[in-house]
Prior knowledge:
With 363 residues, the chain is an alpha/beta fold. The mean pLDDT is 83. It folds into 2 domains: 5-232, Spore Coat Polysaccharide Biosynthesis Protein SpsA, Chain A (Alpha-Beta Complex); 238-358, no CATH class. Strand 1, helix 1 and strand 2 (34-40) form a beta-alpha-beta unit. A 7-stranded mixed sheet has the order 3-2-1-4-6-5-7. The chain is built from 13 helices and 7 strands.
Amino acid sequence: MNLELAIVLPTLNERGNLAPLIERIDAALGEIAWEAIIVDDNSTDGTADAAREIAQADLRVRVIQRFNRRGLASAAIEGMCATAAPLVALMDADHQHDPALLVEMAAAVRAGECDVAVGSRFVAGGSAAGLSSQTREKGSMLANRLARKVTGVELTDPMSGFFVTRAELLRAAAPRLSGIGFKILLDLLATADPSLKVKEFPLQFAERLSGESKLDSAVTFEFLVGLYDRSFGRVVPSRFALFGTVGAAGVAVHLTVLTLLYRTLGEGFALATVFATIAAMTFNFWVNNWLTYRDQRLKGLAAIMRGWLGFCATCAVGALANVAVATLLQARGVYWVMAALAGILIGSVWNYALSSRFVWGRY
Length: 363
């Protein structure tokens, strides 16, 4: 029997969910020839090893373990391009998506009724009861409204992470997909030209079986990054824009500390600038580690301390240039705020180039 459907399951710490999910998929798909591709972002709970154990007993299960990169969208793209099946499905591994819907969704795509079949929480008959709070549900609905404006496609749930499409369609779109964010459907619909025909299927969004939700505030922010990338990413790269945004917030930290020390406490301008620079540099490291480099985030006290020291070391020349330029300009009569901003501008270019390479990148 020829392979018909590949189900891609991006995972991060989902060890306890895998075996029962594969059993549910097997029971739901019946005579459909399927394979499951588990794409694991090097989970700390041994998810990849658990997946390999399942694959030893079931040849329909394959495992891709990724290192030094993270993100649902990029994992989905890799998994969907790694199959010979004519149809590909994306679903979560936490049991919030019902595999029984795959039969109807795959049939609709196979019959040409649509290019993409989407499991929707908000279409008639669907339910978002599995969302952990009303705040998350309201946030999801707001995200959907924003996504509809970007994609131009009228959907009740463009933020859905559960859909089926043709593999050839996905492979053709893959070079244009950003792989940024946590909802590849948004990326796919916004990239398509001409627009894709979509059909929605009511999804009863369930509670996760085990583990913790990955939808923290950083992931929510990542959605906004995805919107930005689709709209302006070709003009200013998303990572650089994020780094610059964090740097702008760092400017506020820098000026606040400088004002406190120089204008309020009467410290010398040079000494006040040194402390303001260190404070801003520390702030930038923490926020960049949490948001800008979320896919390469440093975790654990030792790693964070090494990262902070590395960030300070790689930015040392930029910091010295910052202090030197600001002090020189202020000494020559430039208003102290303007002198500080000039120093910050000089230092920021160096900070981005080296920290991207040596703190969160690979040597």
